[in-house]
């Protein structure tokens, strides 16, 4: 009798546990709090929709807030009021007024070294001798200011009137959270991890897919052709294969993840190749890819010899920018906060000298040709 009673209790308890697990699974797999919403952004029937969760959007909105702007400073009233007339060795910002110069120095300290106050200046300067060139960060900061000038003048086709500041990428960190460098061709993580650079490992930079983990060298540093879609089956002379397609998809996955959107944010799902039926955002992205090539080659990699070894990647190249560096998971960095407007020291109006010396603006968009097969690392 005792055995039968114990068995009955066991079966009742086991049934209750199984019922609880089944109920929990139904709730978790069937519902999401609050409900997911869908926004149609294209023609009906072509699946051009954005799907989002209001709860996660609200959390992301709070995380993407720009810091309050410092009190404005007046522009120079005369040549004697310029920073170059008061301070030594200010080749990039010397045209600003003394007040503007002090304001942007204070802002840069807070953007990269928050909470350090005056001590934060020592991260770029020799204490007691700010004109000295002994600290590598000073050379880097100077080149980064020139990069900001370039972006806010020559690449308005991508950043528009919003522009960028140091905070756009750094967000309170000396090294931006999202950077990349070249990886060994057959780097592995041991065991059955497989080839890290080629594929078979879920990479965060490519949306946790098993696509090539580092598509940035060919596309955001070199000028390899991205468009690989052909309009005829197996066209004569076409050497683009599966491997090439995977590298292209890896870059597209990165862009989608970086902006927190899906493919239809830029493309018409009825005809992905067609520029005529694509959204305006595709043009903006076209300029953004070329902007990244410009700043990675001409403003970041040229600093390689300035950086200490611990600030370089495993192959000795610099830590460079990709879409995530500015966007941080949303389609407009900092939800479009006009920080460049709040800091005219970094705007076109106060950088006439930089604008005059900057390369011409990017050309108008033209259809991207098929070109030759892209030269990618061997798998």
Question: Would you write up a description of this structure?
Answer:
The N and C termini lie far apart (68 Å). Residues 188-195 and 348-379 have low confidence and may be disordered. The protein has 13 helices and 2 strands, in the order αββαααααααααααα. Among the domains are: 29-63, no CATH class; 136-230 and 239-357, Photosynthetic Reaction Center, subunit C, domain 2 (Orthogonal Bundle), CATH 1.10.468.10. The protein has helices spanning 2-30, 54-63, 83-86, 98-112, 136-154, 156-159, 166-170, 216-221, 242-259, 280-300, 323-327, 339-342, 352-357; strands spanning 37-40, 49-52. The protein has 379 residues and is mainly α. The protein has a two-stranded antiparallel sheet. Helices cover 39% and strands 2% of the residues.
How would you describe this structure in keywords?
2 strands, mainly alpha, globular, two-stranded antiparallel sheet, 39% helix, disordered C terminus, Photosynthetic Reaction Center, subunit C, domain 2, 13 helices
**Secondary structure tally, helices:** 13
Count of DSSP strands? 2
CATH class of the domain at 136-230 and 239-357: Mainly Alpha
Tell me roughly what share of residues is in helical segments.
25-40%
Q: SS-based structural class? A: mainly alpha
Biggest sheet descriptor = 2 strands, antiparallel
Taking the alpha carbons of the first and last residues, their distance comes to 68 Å
The gyration radius over C-alpha positions equals: 26 Å
Provide the low-confidence segments as ranges: 188-195, 348-379
Overall shape: it is globular
């Amino acid at each position: 009798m005792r055995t039968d009673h114990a068995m009955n209790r066991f079966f009742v308890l086991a049934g209750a546990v199984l019922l609880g697990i089944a109920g929990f699974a139904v709730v978790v797999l069937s519902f999401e709090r609050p409900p997911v919403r869908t926004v149609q952004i294209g023609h009906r029937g072509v699946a051009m929709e954005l799907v989002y969760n209001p709860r996660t959007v609200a959390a992301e909105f709070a995380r993407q807030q720009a810091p309050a702007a410092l009190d404005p400073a007046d522009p120079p009233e005369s040549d004697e009021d310029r920073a170059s007339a008061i301070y030594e060795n200010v080749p990039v910002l010397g045209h600003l007024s003394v007040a503007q110069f002090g304001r942007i120095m204070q802002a840069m300290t807070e953007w990269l070294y928050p909470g350090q106050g005056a001590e934060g200046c020592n991260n770029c300067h020799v204490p007691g001798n700010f004109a000295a060139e002994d600290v590598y960060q000073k050379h880097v900061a100077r080149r980064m200011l020139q990069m900001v000038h370039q972006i806010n003048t020559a690449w308005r086709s991508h950043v528009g009137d919003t522009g960028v500041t140091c905070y756009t990428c750094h967000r309170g960190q000396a090294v931006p959270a999202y950077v990349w460098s070249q990886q060994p061709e057959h780097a592995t993580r041991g065991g059955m991890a497989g080839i890290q650079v080629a594929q078979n490992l879920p990479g965060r930079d490519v949306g946790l897919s098993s696509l090539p983990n580092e598509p940035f060298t060919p596309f955001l540093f070199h000028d390899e052709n991205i468009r690989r879609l052909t309009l005829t089956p197996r066209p004569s002379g076409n050497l683009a294969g599966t491997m090439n397609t995977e590298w292209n998809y890896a870059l597209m996955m990165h862009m989608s993840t970086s902006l927190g959107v899906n493919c239809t944010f830029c493309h018409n799902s009825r005809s992905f190749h067609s520029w005529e039926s694509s959204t305006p955002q595709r043009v903006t992205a076209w300029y953004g890819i070329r902007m990244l090539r410009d700043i990675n080659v001409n403003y970041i990699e040229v600093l390689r010899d300035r950086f200490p070894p611990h600030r370089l990647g495993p192959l000795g190249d610099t830590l460079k920018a990709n879409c995530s560096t500015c966007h941080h998971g949303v389609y407009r960095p900092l939800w479009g906060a006009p920080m460049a407007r709040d800091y005219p020291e970094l705007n076109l109006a106060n950088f006439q000298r930089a604008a005059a010396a900057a390369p011409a603006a990017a050309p108008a968009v033209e259809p991207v040709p098929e070109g030759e097969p892209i030269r990618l690392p061997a798998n």
